Amino acid sequence: MTPLRSLVVRTSGPEETRACGLALGRSLPGHVTLSLEGPLGSGKTVLAGGVCEAVGVEGPITSPTFTLLNEYEGRSGRRVIHVDCFRLSGAAEFLDLGVDDRLTDDALLLVEWGDRVTEALPADTIRIRLEPGDEDERRIVILGPEGVDLAALEAGAE
Questions:
Q1: What is the DSSP letter of 57?
Q2: pLDDT band at 28, cuts 50/70/90?
Q3: What is the domain count for the chain?
Q4: What is the CATH number of the domain that holds 102?
Q5: Which pLDDT tens digit goes with each residue over 113-143?
């Protein structure tokens, strides 16, 4: 089992949540999977937008709730595969999307509602739990395997 490192960041409003995603995205090398977890309206897509911006994706980032999967390409050619598992019944439906066939060596896989398909995700997945607080406040808990550079987020950590 891969040892995990945890970090907690608090944000106040969508811009700070997006900025957290931006800092996280800048610290992610090569192929990586992020599982974005939390209740409806917790900021998963906002955080995903910041991560996408960090890797050079231009234009709006929308949740693939109805399309199930969106693909983006950053300015450097890095692919982002953004999946929403809210409407999926489990890991088998996730695997049926053919995500593995779309991944390249430097692809970034963002999985909203990833906790619904945990068994289909790689063991080194970075799990990000967004917990709403009062008004626009968020507590963002990041669990990542050793070796993932979370230093860019340390300043905003609890």
A1: -
A2: confident
A3: 1
A4: 3.40.50.300
A5: 999 999 999 988 999 999 999 888 999 999 9
